[in-house]
Design a protein that fits this description.
Blueprint (H helix, E strand, L loop, with lengths): L2 H5 L11 H4 L12 H8 L20 H9 L3 H8 L6 H7 L11 H5 L9 H15 L14 E5 L3 H12 L3 E5 L8 H4 L8 H13 L3 E3 L10 H6 L5 E4 L5 E2 L12 E3 H9 L18 E5 L3 H12 L4 E6 L10 H10 L2 E4 L1 E8 L5 E14 L5 E5 L5 E3 L3 E4 L3 E2 L3 H5 L25 E3 L2 H4 L4 H20 L1
Parallel strand pairs: 1-2, 1-4, 2-3, 4-16, 6-14, 7-8, 7-14, 8-9
Antiparallel strand pairs: 5-15, 10-11, 11-12, 11-13
Helix pairs in contact: 3-4, 3-8, 4-5, 4-8, 5-8, 6-8, 9-18, 13-14, 14-15
């Protein structure tokens, strides 16, 4: 096809559940492409010789290559190309911010002068992965002969899954240690079922077991066992730390200690990992607020807002101190939240949380803002408007203003260098820390980032581990 013919192909919209229905169930919102839709969307790829889309992919998937296979109906061949560099295509196809990564550089979007008309790379990726999983046609993973080396992987999120898989494929014996009772890290405790079905995560964890990775759950490194003991007493030749950014940040405002105030971490973990939404079936205590205020503008804030609706909230306010243009959340998540009934309050922020005489949340006092000059991130800084206070009647407040790195391992490991934000400092080439043989990657190094960025970190660390052990 000529470029003109490709430009004439209409973008394929993703089928979705009806907004009113889905706001009250936990089923996946986006229903996925049909085979014909995937072929049609893949056919829109210009097959640019310079492959600009690849520069936006943290793991450098050969995007034109897999799209060409998909356009020809060879979905197995497309998946084989994806899996050369990406271990979690069904996950990334659902939750990665493609519009800020690969699709940002898509030639089609630039030619159409509309970023929303870029090739839907993630949706085609998702279809290829789902088809193979559902049909049972995934190819087995080949592993090198055993090296006799032992690797400990701490945590079981995207960075750890990727590192564990690459080390196991290199022939090393890998044991993964997870603090919770289920594996998957942020994929199971943070991202809701309606965005990422947990069956998909379980399938990927089963894939690790199939190549020999041993998994110990309810094992808190730093408490159950110290990191250095894994090497000095348990005989591990190398350790990868992928414990994420699970320490919630609060706003240090009056009333944050009231009953009915939650970090988004706790709120989502109770609902996602512990399935509190199964009212009457799950034994998880949960606060069913009727009027909920969520503070923040990222994907976690969108998840918490949409979860509140599904847990029976009659009113959900999303309060963000900048305008919608500055929101870090994916456009798709913002769109879905609005469709489902979340009420957006832009250029506003909480000043204090109000309580009743029994210590329960009774409201939230907010200030209105205007945008000033850009800050260090390039976004315009919010400036409070004096005397603009107003009150919202709420019984629940969820704080989703970011997370810091998990502090437990740095606090219990002498000689492990961290920066002023508590992130572990690593060699940028190998991801080795200040302790020889100890590597780290993902949010514990980057701060809160994306799934695909964490995977890239895990892959780089695995290469560093393999090089270190070969010496």
């Amino acid at each position: 096809m000529t470029p003109k013919e490709r430009m004439a192909i209409p973008p394929q919209a993703m089928p979705e559940q009806d907004a009113k229905a889905r706001a009250h169930n936990m089923n996946e919102v986006a229903l996925g492409y049909t085979a014909e839709m995937a072929k049609t969307e893949a056919s829109r790829c210009m097959q640019c010789p310079t492959k600009p889309c690849m520069q936006g992919c943290p793991v450098a998937i050969n995007i034109p290559g897999f799209l060409a296979k998909a356009a020809a109906g060879d979905f197995a061949g497309a998946l084989k190309i994806i899996r050369e560099t990406s271990l979690l295509p069904a996950v990334c196809g659902r939750v990665c911010p493609q519009e800020k990564q690969c699709q940002k550089f898509c030639t089609m979007g630039k030619l159409m002068k509309d970023a929303d008309k870029a090739v839907a790379i993630g949706r085609v990726e998702r279809f290829c992965a789902d088809l193979a999983r559902e049909s049972g046609t995934e190819e087995p993973v080949a592993c090198a002969p055993k090296t006799g080396k032992k690797i400990a992987v701490i945590g079981s999120g995207p960075a750890s899954i990727t590192c564990a898989a690459d080390c196991a494929k290199a022939g090393h014996s890998v044991t993964m240690f997870e603090a919770f009772h289920k594996c998957g890290g942020v994929l199971v405790y943070g991202i809701p079922e309606f965005r990422l079905p947990k069956e998909i995560v379980r399938h990927e964890i089963d894939g690790l077991r199939s190549i020999g990775v041993e998994i110990d759950t309810n094992f808190v490194v730093g408490r159950t066992r110290r990191l250095k003991d894994l090497m000095e007493k348990d005989g591990f030749d190398a350790v990868f730390v992928g414990t994420g950014a699970g320490l919630p940040k609060f706003m240090d405002i009056e009333g944050e200690n009231l009953n009915g105030v939650f970090s988004a971490n706790e709120y989502l973990t109770r609902a996602n990992l512990m399935k509190a939404y199964l009212d009457g079936e799950a034994a998880t205590p949960f606060w069913h607020g009727k009027k909920v205020a969520v503070l923040g503008g990222g994907n976690v804030a969108m998840d918490a807002s949409r979860m509140a609706l599904r847990l029976g909230a009659e009113k959900v306010y999303l309060i963000y101190r900048r305008s919608e243009a500055e929101m870090p959340a994916r456009r798709e998540e913002v769109h879905h939240a609005k469709e489902e009934g979340v009420e957006f309050h832009m250029l506003e922020n909480a000043k204090r949380i109000l309580g009743d005489d029994k210590g329960f949340v009774s409201g939230i006092e907010c200030l209105r803002y205007e945008l000033g000059e850009p800050d260090a991130s390039g976004r315009r800084s919010p400036v409070a408007i004096a005397g603009s206070e107003f009150t919202l009647d709420v019984d629940t407040v969820v704080v989703a203003v970011g997370n810091a790195s998990n502090p437990l391992i740095p606090a219990t490991t002498e000689g492990l260098e961290v920066n002023k934000r508590g992130n572990i400092v690593v060699d940028p080439e190998t991801n080795m820390t200040s302790i020889p043989g100890v590597f780290a990657g993902g949010d514990i190094v980057l701060g809160a980032a994306t799934v695909i960025l964490a995977m890239g970190e895990g892959r780089k660390a695995a290469a560093g581990i393999n090089a270190y052990l070969s010496k």
